[in-house]
Write a structure and sequence with these properties.
The complex is a heterodimer. Chain A contains 18 helices and 14 strands. By secondary structure, chain A is an alpha/beta fold. The two termini of chain A are about 40 Å apart. In chain B, helix 4 packs across helix 11 and helix 16 packs across helix 18. Classes of the chains: A alpha/beta, B alpha+beta. At the A-B interface, helix 15 and helix 17 of A face strand 8 of B.
Chain lengths: ~525, ~700
């Protein structure tokens, strides 16, 4: 609500004080204009067709209006005091830039097209009391909100390998597809959260970046989301959207469990399966996906008839799970067992062979059309054998990316024929080609030691795809860049990147990339 | 004849005759008449008796004797013990059912002949089969209640009685005996009859004939016997069982003294000498059968083999000279190895008795030369005296994992590689659900590791892939002769095998893929040196059944059994040998089948009644130590040979779990065309990802 009110205030204030529609990024025009006090200094020129201050304000206001339909429209018209408006603008927007600018280390050169450092840092709320104070503040804001250098700021914990891979994948994409020079990607190691705001300040004031990539971890994502709103700057976060939050300029480019679960369910639906079983290890990271799958199933009208878990790698635990899954416990089917017992005894007597009670086994009850197994391929192979051991003749299984290893088909187990799994990455051969890597890979498999590198570089590469529209349109004002991204149709509701989930089916001793739900 | 005529003379003619007689004669006439009448009656009675006797004897067949039966005696074939020799020509056994050593009459010492004649038939050279005087003397002595040293039967009669007639004592049999004896005397010389008598008659304690008796009672040849010993043997003819000195020494001694008296009566001894000899102590040879001098189970096997080779029902007592492949040194070492296991077997047996059964723990061992197929040693049980059942040749037992080399050989020959990876999980093939020993599941394993650790479920996987029929065919190729069930359990050794089966199979690996038919007999001759049988040459008994590279791959696998696997307790022996353990369900059978290029040695431990053994006994805990002991003692004095590594193979160090090249892995042989990859990282799941996500891209 605070943010919505803030935009509303800005809108009202700007309406009452500004009449110029000139692009804020044109320093000469701006500085000459009497109606605008926006001054742009610096060597770099802002995009030619930068939006006027009025459009900026309108744009700012519109989402808040739409987001807050209950806000009284007359409120904006009722304000006539420019000083008051100025104060409000100052507090809701200018002060954030000001606060951030003060974090920029002294002696560093600011980017061109930014307001004068002195004014930005020295202005106070009492500036609004000056006759041209309001104009000055609006002018400064115009350059801050519109101008950018078409650079990408990166705030990732680069001490860690995975973010390094992501950055590398991003660089590779932008260099290959947009011919973007490496110096256009300004990266900071954000491992130290205390330094995050300073790094952010440098990206804004020293590099005047078009967008910022970060949010690899939850804490930095939270911070960046706040700053995106405060600064009206697009942020591309490597995390999942938090439920119930709405940030206009925050985009999420990372494969999510929801997407994985949704793809699994859509695929299952395409097979006309209405009842699914679900098993997953408790000693892994699969419980979240298991929950997601169950939620998604409800939405898709699929019933998850049985859910069991186990300790992966522990035979006793997996064995017990299999017995429960297929209702093999004698206690659960006592009558059936007794009947089988007597029958076996009778047969043994008629054939004059010794009767052995241990040979009396119940046939498995399969109460689902297919079974989702969220475990690694080794365990899938073992589970497949265990299921066969208990008399399961045929069962389609569904998995996730953990299934992807040559061992899923080598040596071949016909039991797995027709089972499939969903992965975030398609052909490793194509991925390595895109990433310019020479690794010993095939379409379907990569060496285990290269997996992490390939996966995360691929995520970085896809990140590059997601932000490419921004970089392809450098003339668009920074405050409007998010619209460009939305127009690319690469994002779905909640500004989440439509991650292309791949389906691999085990067929004829190999993996076939195919999907019924596409 | 005059007395016979009156009855034919008319009564009126008699006075005439009387008129011619003097008065005195007339007075005596009634007496004459009485006498005549009496004589006539007697003649009639005699005639009647004669007729009756004739009819009786005719009915008995005395006048129509079957001469073919007599031929049996006339052409009597003297039995002779068959003799068995080891590979060095040393006698190891004599085969007989009746202990009999033929000695021609001219080789029998005169002392023996004279003594026997003195006690049994002093008028032997004077009568024609029946000694009337002797009979009368015997009857007289009996009537008068006097003792007689000699019986009524002549030596000829005794021959007839023993060789042609039943032992019952009836008048009929006696008459027939006399008749046969007359006939025999007509046909055979006295010497021949005596030779038969001295060689063929039972003299107690399993011996037939004087030579056998001399061996049996005194461990001497005939010419080595002292007079008192001869007297004892001569006394046995009358009643061998009664006078058996080993059973009834007092009676035997009394009978010996009778013989000495008879010798004295026959002027062979002076009374003083007789008394002197009667006082001498007699030292008998042990009553232990001397049939087997060594390797009794092997000898039993040889007897059966000989019957098969010669297609005879009998081998014992046939005078055969059987030359075998037995190596006395190897045999001795095998016997010691088995005997050495007594402590551990007894301990296991004791525990087993208290827990799951009461079966006596037995052991058997078979040693062969893989390149010739010769059986060098055979121990069929722990104690031949306790149990003569030859477990090394006749016992069919579940080989358990010792069968697996056949499965893996078939797999490797069909193109699989030692570093192929298998998932070790419970398996169910047509409801066959074997378990892994120790419950090792949820791991991966190369074929090589699955083999040397003797994992069951991967083996069934392999067998399922190649098909049980192919495995059975391969087993047949390798010389597995026992029935094989067409079911998956066979892959894990559920079809019973003999030690001979296993020796043939393991011989293939030890002999570079060549199967050589086993052979225990090199030649058989008769007692005159005539050749009856000559074993086929090694070449003709050899068949190439497995490629040399695959054969060596199995050798390497079985070396790994010792180096890294179930035979680890003998790991140092991997330098010279290879082998495989085998344990059947519930540990009822424990095997170790080991080999060097020169020796295949198969060891089995188990109970005859299939009683499960105590605890987790395996082929590695009971059978392996026996093999270990044998190999160490054998190679203490013998330089080991190396297995030949075929040129088509290269040795590579490979991770035994995931199959990629690894300096810290184990050595495995590969065809040069099938060498493992430098890296095979995709198979390698590091420990850190074992329990967690293998590829969790969602976790940061």
């Amino acid at each position: 609500m605070f943010l919505q009110n803030k935009y509303l205030l800005i809108f009202i204030l700007l309406l009452t004080t500004c009449s110029s529609d000139e692009p804020a990024s044109e320093p000469t025009k701006s500085t000459r204009s009497k109606k605008s006090t926006v001054k742009v200094s610096g060597k770099e020129k802002a995009p030619k067709n930068s939006p006027t201050l009025t459009t900026l304000v309108e744009e700012k206001a519109s989402p808040s209006q739409s987001a807050s339909p209950s806000a009284p429209p007359q409120e904006s018209k009722s304000s006539g005091n420019s000083a008051d408006n100025c104060r409000k603008v100052y507090q809701s927007l200018f002060s954030h830039y000001q606060r951030l600018s003060r974090l920029v280390p002294k002696g560093r050169d600011w980017a061109a097209g930014l307001p004068k450092q002195d004014f930005l840092q020295s202005a106070t709320i009492s500036t609004c009391d000056e006759s041209d104070g309001y104009e000055k503040i609006l002018g400064a804001l115009s350059s801050l909100l519109n101008n950018h250098t078409n650079k990408i700021g990166v705030l990732l914990p680069l001490r860690n390998t995975k973010p390094q891979y992501i950055l590398n994948g991003l660089q590779r994409n932008l260099a290959a597809n947009l011919n973007l020079q490496q110096d256009k990607i300004i990266s900071y190691d954000s491992s130290n959260m205390n330094a995050l705001e300073v790094q952010l300040a440098e990206l804004i004031f020293l590099h005047q970046v078009a967008t910022i990539v970060g949010g690899y971890d939850a804490a930095s994502a939270t911070q960046l989301k706040l700053w995106s709103d405060r600064l009206m700057i697009p942020m591309v976060l490597l995390s999942e959207p938090s439920r119930g939050e709405q940030h206009d300029r925050v985009f999420y480019v990372y494969p999510t469990l929801d997407q994985m679960g949704s793809k699994i369910m859509r695929e299952a639906k395409a097979y006309h399966w209405t009842r699914l079983g679900l098993i997953y290890p408790v000693n892994g990271d699969q419980s979240q996906l298991a929950n997601t799958i169950q939620e998604t199933a409800k939405k898709e009208g699929i019933t998850v008839t049985r859910v069991e878990n186990y300790t992966t790698g522990n035979y006793e635990s997996m064995d017990a799970m299999a017995k429960k899954l297929f209702v093999l416990e004698q206690s659960q089917r006592e009558e059936e067992y007794q009947a089988a017992y007597l029958k076996a005894k009778k047969i043994a007597e008629s054939q004059k062979i010794p009767f052995q009670a241990k040979n009396v086994v119940l046939q498995p009850k399969i109460e689902f059309d297919a079974l989702i197994v969220l475990d690694q391929y080794r365990m899938i192979r073992h589970l497949a054998k265990m299921f066969q051991f208990y008399g399961v003749r045929s069962l389609k299984m569904i998995g996730n990316q953990e299934w992807r290893g040559p061992g899923i088909i080598e040596p071949y187990d016909p039991f797995l024929e027709g089972s499939f799994f969903v992965d975030i990455i398609g052909s490793y051969l194509q991925a390595t080609k895109k990433l310019g890597l020479t690794r010993d890979v095939t379409d379907n498999f990569a060496p285990v030691e290269s997996l992490q590198e390939l996966d995360f570089k691929y995520i970085g590469y896809k990140l590059g795809d997601a932000i490419a529209p921004i970089l392809k349109n450098p003339q668009i004002a920074r405050r409007k860049l998010h619209e460009t991204m939305l127009k690319s149709k690469m994002f779905e509701a909640g500004n989440q990147y439509k991650w292309p989930m791949e389906v691999f089916t085990i067929r004829n001793r190999s993996l076939i990339s195919t999907s019924l739900s596409n | 004849m005059e007395e016979d005529t009156p009855q034919d003379t008319p009564p009126d003619a008699q006075p005439n005759t009387e008129q011619e007689l003097p008065l005195e004669s007339k007075r005596r006439l009634p007496w004459v008449r009485i006498l005549r009448t009496f004589a006539l009656v007697c003649v009639c009675i005699l005639g009647l008796l004669t007729f009756s006797a004739y009819t009786y004897m005719k009915n008995l067949g005395v006048f129509s004797l079957d001469m073919h039966q007599l031929e049996h005696v006339a052409n009597f074939k003297f039995k002779d013990n068959s003799k068995v020799f080891d590979r060095n020509g040393n006698l190891i056994a004599e085969l007989y059912d009746s202990y009999q050593i033929y000695t021609p009459i001219n080789k029998i010492p005169k002392q023996v002949i004279d003594t026997v004649i003195a006690i049994e038939d002093r008028r032997f050279y004077e009568h024609h089969g029946v000694d009337i005087k002797g009979v009368l003397r015997a009857v007289t002595h009996r009537i008068m209640g006097r003792k007689t040293l000699q019986g009524g039967s002549t030596i000829t009669q005794q021959v007839v009685r023993n060789l042609l007639l039943s032992p019952e004592k009836t008048m009929e049999r006696k008459i027939i005996e006399i008749a046969w004896s007359w006939e025999l005397e007509k046909r055979l010389s006295k010497e021949k009859i005596l030779e038969i008598y001295l060689n063929a008659l039972f003299l107690g304690n399993g011996s037939y004939g004087v030579t056998a008796a001399a061996h049996r009672y005194f461990s001497k040849n005939l010419d080595e016997l002292t007079p008192e010993q001869v007297a004892l043997i001569a006394g046995l003819f009358q009643s061998p069982s009664r006078f058996n000195p080993l059973k009834n020494p007092k009676l035997a001694r009394a009978r010996q003294k009778q013989v000495l008296t008879a010798m004295m009566d026959a002027k062979m001894l002076t009374p003083q000498k007789r008394d002197e000899l009667a006082k001498k102590k007699l030292h008998y040879a042990p009553s232990i059968p001397t049939q087997y001098l060594s390797a009794p189970y092997f000898v039993d096997y040889i007897r059966e083999q000989s019957k098969e080779i010669l297609k005879r029902r009998r081998v014992d007592g046939q005078g055969l000279r059987i030359y075998t492949t037995l190596d006395p040194k190897v045999q001795s070492q095998a016997e010691v190895a088995v005997a050495n296991s007594k402590e551990s077997l007894d301990a296991t047996e004791k525990h087993s008795a208290g827990t799951s059964g009461t079966g006596h723990l037995e052991s058997a061992m078979l040693v062969t030369n893989p390149s010739t197929g010769e059986i060098l040693g055979m121990v069929g049980g722990r104690d031949y005296k306790q149990s003569q059942f030859n477990r090394a040749a006749s016992s069919r037992r579940s080989p358990g994992s010792a069968f697996k080399p056949i499965v893996y050989a078939t797999a490797l020959q069909s193109g699989m590689k030692w570093n192929d990876v298998l998932y070790v999980s419970p398996v169910n093939v047509e409801n066959y659900k074997p378990k892994n020993y120790g419950g090792e599941y949820l791991t991966e394993s190369t074929l090589f590791r699955a083999f040397y650790r003797s994992l069951n479920s991967p083996t069934v996987d392999v067998a399922n892939q190649i098909g049980i029929k192919r495995i059975i065919e391969k087993a047949r190729d390798f010389g597995f002769e026992s029935p094989l069930k067409d079911e998956m359990g066979t892959a894990l050794g559920s079809s019973d095998a003999t030690l001979l089966d296993m020796a043939r199979v393991y011989g293939v690996f030890a002999n570079s893929g060549n199967r050589v038919e086993l052979n225990a007999i090199t030649k058989i001759e008769d007692n005159n040196g005539g050749k009856i049988y000559q074993a086929p040459t090694v070449e003709s008994r050899t068949k190439h059944v497995l490629s040399q590279p695959v054969s060596y791959m199995l050798v390497s696998g079985m070396k790994a059994v010792l180096k890294h696997g179930t035979g680890y307790s003998s790991h140092d022996l991997a330098a010279i040998a290879a082998g495989k353990t085998g344990t059947s369900n519930l540990s009822t059978d424990n095997w170790f089948c080991g080999f060097t290029p020169e020796l295949v040695s198969i060891v089995w431990v188990g109970t005859d009644d299939h009683t499960p053994m105590y605890g987790n006994q395996t082929g590695g805990t009971l059978a392996l130590p026996i093999w270990d002991h044998f190999i160490r003692s054998t190679y203490a004095t013998r330089k080991p040979k190396d297995f030949i590594v075929p040129a088509e193979l290269v040795m590579r160090r490979v991770d035994p779990v995931h199959g990629q090249l690894s300096n810290s892995g184990v050595e495995m042989p590969f065809l040069t065309s099938q060498q493992p990859e430098e890296t095979r990282d995709w198979q390698k799941i590091t420990t850190s990802t074992e329990s967690g996500g293998y590829r969790n891209v969602f976790a940061k």
